[in-house]
Amino acid sequence: MVGLTGAPLIVAPPIMAGLLLLAAGGAVWAVELDAAQPVARIAAGSCIRQDRPQPVWEAVTAFRPDVLLLLGDNVYGDTEDMAVLRAKYARLAAQSGFAALRARVPIVAVWDDHDYGANDAGREYPRRRESQQVFFDFCGVAADSPLRSQAGIYRAMITGPPGRRVQFICLDTRYHRSPLATRPEHWLCGQGPYVPTDEPDATVLGAEQWAWLAAVLREPAEVRIVLSSIQVAATEHHFEHWGNFPVERARLLRTIRDSGAAGVVIVSGDRHAGEISRIPPGPEALAYPLYDLTASSLNQPGAGDRPPEPNQLRLGPRCHGVNFGTIEIDWHAAEPALTLAVRDERGEVFHAERMVLGALTSR
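RE: above sequence
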């Protein structure tokens, strides 16, 4: 990725500057992730209405993250017109709080349904190839990058020296995903329309991405942050989550377990509420607890009149207001540790979980 440069853009109005930048296929991220630098403070969030105020960026900036993770619904595109989609990304790029943060902090992003192009869409979305190019334009991916020709936005990167390496694994849960199965009592009691599919060939990631994931999990790293736009741990509600594809969810856990990868943590978005969940160790899971930090939403919390979503794996309360997630890695402790937190719009900790890094290993 390259920086945000070029004198002609400086004199343009903010939104027009973003439009010119995206139309030219230029970079939007102003700071690159430095592979040599250790990461200790990570912020994460999802669900951003590009045309609404975004005061939360002040609290995110005050946290002083080393990297920001965008977990999907980074804009609400919901269109098959790529000019419209580009304009909505440009609207986000022009938001002063986001622009200021972007100028100081590297960003790692995945998409979800609305920035992909359509609500709850998977491989049936007809403009997925074109939307991928717009997404990579927004992320500043070089025009000649091999990512441009692969089917999907999945990718991985490692930063930090040996002993303090953090791997970011970006999953694409949209491009190859099979259609969702719906229940007859659609939206019954406000709990959502979907049920686990019984289609034997249904997939979330697709064959190529599965092979890629198995390979990158074997690369050396001490901490691995898996970006999944939809929740992995929570499976009881009837909205989108990995549990709608039970064979695929089991495969995800098995793939992580069989790789021998230690220090794996999931970060997810989508739900317009923040929470921390934990999948306990077991024969059908990992040999150590797998935490899922759900950080959502940055400026449009969920409706307060909905029934609470069931989740037996939830730790502590669920944050229904504007929120973002944080991960702090204490590399200097006698036993290096991770602290996962959901923070409110002011940056105050709503709920946090701390675990020593040594507990996230099968050895």
